[in-house]
Write a structure and sequence with these properties.
By secondary structure, the protein is of the alpha+beta class. Helices cover 60% and strands 8% of the residues. It has 3 domains: 468 residues, no CATH class; 92 residues, Alpha-Beta Plaits; 84 residues, Multidrug efflux transporter AcrB pore domain (Alpha-Beta Plaits, 2-Layer Sandwich). α7 packs antiparallel against α10. The relative contact order is 0.13.
Length: 747
């Protein structure tokens, strides 16, 4: 692997102009195709195999006029002085209802006085607006018309607010990416001490994300990729694109410091650090593509699109980066030597001092790291999952104010009514059966109201609305869903009873994700474990990597639960209302964090293995790994944390939760697991950490990640140059990543 990549790097360096031009042509070409490509289809929010989806499918067949998939908005009216049934207020409400009905893409608007959607005290009423298309297909003019009508209807006497999925939602836009790039630029300049060297990872990361995003747009229609598929691809592509380029550029400058000429340095950097990039990228790709086992179309699309962007980032790192290094010439010079003390010796880097401390006290450090992560992970035992609704919006938003007005005027359950579908067995009439089911439900204490059943044209299916007595996201409402789905209810009435609605879908999604978590972990961790055995030629190192990852994920989930569910430090992180964690968050975090955690494992530990196979003792090899990789791994982690944390500025609870969770998990993994627990474990294991049974050694291919064969390349550095670098001491190569060079044998 290292030999092949070294040749690829040398070729790209020599043919720098054609290679760079090829990537520019690829960007322009995808841009042209994207400009001609049709718009992306709406997101597929279906949840195959769930009861709620079965209910929606039955509703679509039996009640096509209901348009169950169409976008909706709820316009809430509250009289500030008097009642909404008063003459002036009623006139204003009805005029607003007429204006709403004239809006584009509107199918119907309910009259609150006709549907009895007026609170008992007469202070509040609401109208339901239904649209002919799903929320993802609403035109911007439609959303603007809704917002304008609501704003014009409000007055000192009448408060008007609107909620629902048809409302214009504030987006983080490109501000998150811009903030993440700004922090990355500062970190890169500090790391390299050169504006040009710092600019290369930023340039190539943006190029990779641009090509990936345009390619997703081109493939949206033929592959059915939803309109929001590119969100995860942008986040992950930007983070790994910067990191992968950072490692290759750092290794290039370190090789220059060792005395290699520019072409040899580029070839060696791609052969060694590039090998680490390839295998780290493979772990991320496995983790993202593995999201398909969950069986949720939207999650599968997001995972595959992000995996494609990672592939582009890897290809850029091993081809475009050496080409650009050739174009930059001597302006990307060697790594600067460390300052020397008065006695002539160079001062050890902070990473070296920390590694020496860890290997001297491995048990204390190991127990301390595990205790810290264990304490942070405790809240994860109380994890409650759900899908965020209007109750999670900022208190200043119209969606949140509409939610609060409905809860105060009617009761919390009116914000999330359940839809019960009754189908008579044997194709008979469902009218009497639906009335019996409605009467039984109405008698329950946890039900606030039950609507009159509506019969389909065939008479075989009936639908009725059930209003819980508790809030949509509460555990009591979830218990009600399970109670209504009890087979005894359907069996007693000789009918098929299905429950739909946002709360029912939340319950189904949470269960589906919980059921898929163990198989997903088994698939992703198992494949990555086999890959890491080939990379490290060890059984214990991959096992340690997997266990450390579990600690990172549990600690990350614990932090998410503490902030977003329990409300700790909620004001600091901008959490409007603590509540259940987004259902997709745990499995999403597992997939993304596993891939990124293996990045740091590969980059840091391959350098330790290189030192070990070249003759250093197990403890010295740990220190050597930190000496050459700690600074760059730290910079990479800070960049990735910054990119994720920038998304916490969004008003959307989902993006805020994802940004916080990923930033916290990467923080724990990079600085507690990889930089603390990993060296402590390796120091305790000693030589056994690098042992591979002989029978397995014969089966595992020798990938030569350390690049030992590169030293036999006649294009290598001169002996005098390398001798000079050794005389100068190891501190010249302070900015390297991945693997190094030298002679030695495998394990």
């Amino acid at each position: 692997m290292a030999t092949f990549l070294s040749r690829l790097g040398r070729f790209s360096f020599r043919r720098r102009w054609p290679v760079a031009l090829l990537w520019v042509v690829l960007l322009v070409g995808t841009g042209v195709l994207a400009g001609r490509a049709p718009a992306a289809p709406p997101n597929d929010f279906s949840m195959p195999g769930t009861e709620a989806q079965q209910a929606y499918d039955l509703l679509e067949d039996s009640f096509p006029e209901l348009n169950a998939d169409g976008a909706t908005a709820r316009v809430v009216f509250r009289a500030e002085d008097g009642k909404v049934t008063g003459p002036e207020a009623k006139k204003a409400v009805q005029e607003t209802v007429r204006e709403l009905g004239d809006g584009p893409q509107v199918v119907r608007v309910t009259d609150p006085y006709a549907t009895r959607s007026v609170s008992e005290d007469g202070s509040t009423a609401y109208a339901q607006v239904s649209y002919e298309v799903p929320a993802s297909q609403l035109e911007e003019s439609t959303r603007d018309a809704l917002q304008d009508t609501v704003e014009h209807a409000g007055s000192q006497a009448l408060t008007v607010e609107v909620g629902g999925n048809a409302v214009n939602a504030k987006s983080v836009g490109h501000s998150a990416e811009a903030l993440g790039l700004a922090v990355a630029a500062v970190v890169l300049v500090i790391t390299f001490g050169s504006l040009l060297a710092a600019g290369l990872p930023l340039l190539t990361a943006v190029l990779g994300v641009g090509i990936g995003g345009l390619a997703i747009k081109v493939l949206a229609e033929p592959l059915g990729l939803g309109s929001t598929t590119s969100g995860l691809a942008t986040m992950i592509g930007l983070a790994v694109g910067i990191d992968y380029a950072l490692f290759v550029v750092s290794r290039y400058r370190a090789e220059l410091a060792r005395g290699r000429n520019r072409e040899d340095a580029a070839a060696h950097a791609v052969g060694t650090a590039g090998s680490a990039v390839v295998f780290a990228g493979l772990t991320v790709i496995i983790a993202l593509a593995g999201l398909g086992v969950v069986g949720i179309p939207l999650l599968t699309q997001m995972g595959l699109a992000a995996a494609g962007t990672v592939v582009i980032a890897v290809l850029i790192a091993v081809t475009l980066i050496p080409a650009l290094l050739g174009l930059c010439g001597r302006r990307t010079g060697p790594a600067r030597p460390r300052r020397r003390r008065e006695d002539g010796r160079s001062k050890p880097a902070m990473g070296v001092r920390w590694a020496r401390f860890v290997v001297r006290r491995p048990i204390t450090v190991l127990m301390g790291g595990i205790a810290v992560l264990g304490a942070i992970a405790v809240p994860a035992t109380s994890l409650e999952m759900g899908l965020p609704g209007d109750e999670s919006k900022p208190a200043s938003s119209t969606q949140r104010r509409a939610y609060d007005l409905v809860a105060e005027g009617f009761g919390p359950g009116y914000n999330g009514p359940l839809t019960v579908v009754v189908q008579a067995d044997g194709g008979g009439s469902a009218q009497e059966t639906a009335r019996d089911v409605a009467g039984e439900i109405r008698a329950r204490e946890d039900v606030a109201a039950v609507g009159q059943p509506k019969l389909s044209e065939s008479g075989e299916t009936a639908v009725l609305s059930v209003v819980p007595a508790t809030a949509p996201s509460s555990a009591e409402t979830a218990d009600l869903v399970h109670a209504l789905r009890d087979p005894a209810v359907a069996g007693e009435h000789d009918a098929r009873v299905l429950v739909a609605g946002s709360t029912a879908m939340n319950v189904d999604v949470s269960q589906k994700l919980s059921d898929a978590l163990v198989p997903y972990l088994g698939l992703v961790v198992g494949l990555a474990f086999l890959l890491l055995i080939a990379v490290f030629r060890s059984l214990l190192v991959p096992l340690k990597a997997a266990l450390g990852f579990l600690l990172s994920v549990l600690a990350g989930l614990g932090a998410v639960v503490a902030v977003f569910q329990w409300g700790w430090l909620s004001s600091l992180f901008g959490v409007a209302v603590p509540g259940p964690v987004m259902s997709m968050m745990p499995i999403f975090m597992v997939g993304v964090v596993f891939g990124l955690a293996m990045d740091y494992e590969v980059f840091l530990v391959t350098r330790m293995r290189e030192a070990y196979v070249h003759g250093q003792s197990p403890k010295d090899s740990v220190v050597s790994g930190f000496e050459h990789s700690a600074r760059v791994v730290t910079a990479a982690a800070v960049i990735m944390i910054s990119v994720f944390a920038a998304f916490m500025g969004s008003d959307e609870q989902m993006l805020k939760t994802v940004g916080f969770g990923l930033a916290a998990a990467v923080l724990f993994d990079a600085f507690v697991v990889r930089m603390t627990i990993v060296p402590a474990v390796l120091a305790l294991l000693g030589r056994s950490a690098w042992h591979l049974p002989r029978w397995l050694d014969r089966l595992v291919p020798d990938l030569d990640v350390e690049g030992e064969r590169l030293e036999r390349d006649p294009g290598g550095p001169t002996a005098s140059a390398l001798a000079a670098s050794r005389d100068a001491g190891p501190d010249l190569a302070v900015e390297t990543a991945g693997s190094g060079s030298g002679r030695g044998s495998g394990s």
